Each structure stands twice: as structure tokens, then as C-alpha cells.
Amino acid sequence: MSDTDTVLVNRSGGAVTITLNRPDKLNAFNDDMHLALRQALAEAREAEDARAILLTGAGRAFCAGQDLGDRDPRRGVPDLGHTLETFYNPTVRLIRAIEKPVVCAVNGVAAGAGANFALACDIVLAAKSARFIQAFCRLGLVPDAGGSWHLTRLLGEARAKALALTGEPLDAETAERWGLIWKAVDDEALADEARALVEAFAKGPTKGYGLTKQAIHAASTQTLDSQLDMERDFQRKAGYSADYAEGVAAFLEKRVPEFSGK
Questions:
Q1: Which of 13, 48, 96, 147 is deepest in the core (most CB within 10 A)?
Q2: Domains of the chain with CATH codes
Q3: Residue 99 carries which DSSP code?
Q4: What's phi and psi for 177, nearest 5 deg?
């Protein structure tokens, strides 16, 4: 176990667990936590023996978004565009660019940018008691950290507008039913289910996972012809991988594959 106070990092085999760790502030972001999270994600991205990532929060919340005490206009009007460009946007881009599965376990409230960081991950599990809140409208702000992008693509314009304009909390089971997240699970089962999922990914064909992510990310902005070309190119790369050779050998030999992630 290693930690930087605001973020905890634990590695077990090929699985990396990153925990937001300001529980007294509901894991709201300050500048230190931003930088620590980005460093942890970047290190997991680059480490060859890190093959899957779990992001979660300490205490009773996943993340309450920005710590507003650090952006209080009564002490001088902050440039929130600079805040996004410097802290939030690079991390969202990094999460999306990691060519390994990134799982988010939402263990409590996910508000504002906290909700939208979760949505940037590949697979989101949430405790049934969790709530997703687009709290920006209560402050006269707009959804950020990719919120307007993810909400619209996952839910459609009508639901995206309603959630963004009302700030109404969305419970985990409704989020699952609407397709915003992968699954809502019993609170006491969340940690074990998330850990099992990430550990399974850490033993899987990592190169194939990364190519699959890239193809799905591109699908909403490409024509069918362009997507077919991308699938051809990616399948060629996957077919040359050691994992494909192992997967076929294991299938033909009727045994469990032992993927190397290469």
C-alpha cells in the first residue's frame, strides 16, 4: 500500500485500486487530490504489469465534485475555465485514453464532476444507496468533466437536459435501468463484486481490451464504412498478439487460457 494522503493506491497482481481519500470532505477535489489522482492513473497506464484499474472512494461518498471552499468567489472570482483546463479535462482525457479496463465502484453520492468522472470510466458499478447528482445548476454552472457529453450519449437529450437543469438525484437502480451505468448492486456486495471484476480483467487479454475500447469510443462519430475499416485494422493487430495465440490454443486444448496481456 502506498498513499499520498488524498489518494490511496493498492496493487494486487495486475489489478490497481485507486481510492479517493478525503472522506471528511466527501472526497471533494482539491488541487492536491487532482494531481495525485492523475499521477496514479498515469503510472497505472504505463506499468506493463498493471492490467486493470479500479477507481472508488473512501468513506460514505464516491466524490462530491469540486471542493467549493477552494473556489469561493467571495475571496476573488476564480477562473473556472482554467480550473477545468488544468485539472479536470486532462484527467478525463487520461481515463478515456488508458488502453486497459477502468472500473468505477460508486460507493455513495457522486455529485457534479464526481459523477462525471465515474461516467468517464469503462464500467460503472454502484451501490444501490448511491446517487448521481448533476449539481451544477444549483450553482449557476454548466455540467463539466465530460458530463454534457456522456449524459447526452448515454441517456439522450431529454433525460440529459432534465438531469442537468433540475439537479434531481438519480438513484443507482434507475441509473442502471436507463443505461447510465452497468449495474447497481447491494451496498455490502459492491467492494467484492468490483474487486472480482477487476481481478478477472487483470488476467484477461489486455491488448484486445484496449482495442475494443478504442473501437467503441470511435463508433458514435464514424460512418459504418469507417468503423468497418477500423475493425479490420484492429482485428489484424489483435490477431498478431500473443493473447490471441494463447486463446485459440486454450480453446482447442480445452483448458483455461493464461493470457499475458500482450
A1: 147
A2: 2-202 (3.90.226.10), 206-252 (1.10.12)
A3: S
A4: -65, -35
